[in-house]
Amino acid sequence: MLRDRPSFIGMESAGIHETTYNSIMKCDIDIRKDLYANNVLSGGSTIDIALKMMFQKEITALAPSTMKIKIIAPPERKYSVWIGGSILASLSTFQQMWISKQEYDESGPSIVHRKCF
C-alpha cells in the first residue's frame, strides 16, 4: 500500500518505507539498530490512521528479522514540523541563517545556499 502512494500525485518514486530502509542502510552499521527503533512520523500527511500500521508492516518486511522496529506517531504530529521549525528559528546559532523577505526578493532562492550551507 505505501509503495503506491507516490503515484497518487503522478510521481514515480519509492514509498516512505523503502526510502527509510535505504537511508538506514546507508548509515554506519553500528547505528542502524537505533535508527530502526526510532522512526517518528510527523506532519499533517501522517495523520492517516492506518499509516503507522502500514509503515510498521512494510519496514518490518524489509529490515533484518533481528531488528526491533518502533514507529512513533505522537498525537501532535500534525504540528510537529512547525514546532520543530519554530524551535530551530529561536536558537541564537540559527539567527545568522535567517532570510528577510527583502533579501529573498533581491537574491531569489540562491540566498538559501549562501546563508545556510
Automatic annotation (TrEMBL):
It comes from the Eukaryota. Coiled coil: none annotated. The keyword Cytoplasm applies. Keywords: Cytoplasm, Cytoskeleton. The keyword Cytoplasm applies. InterPro entries: Actin, Actin_CS, ATPase_NBD. PANTHER family: ACTIN. This is Actin. The lineage of its organism: Eukaryota, Metazoa, Ecdysozoa, Nematoda, Chromadorea.
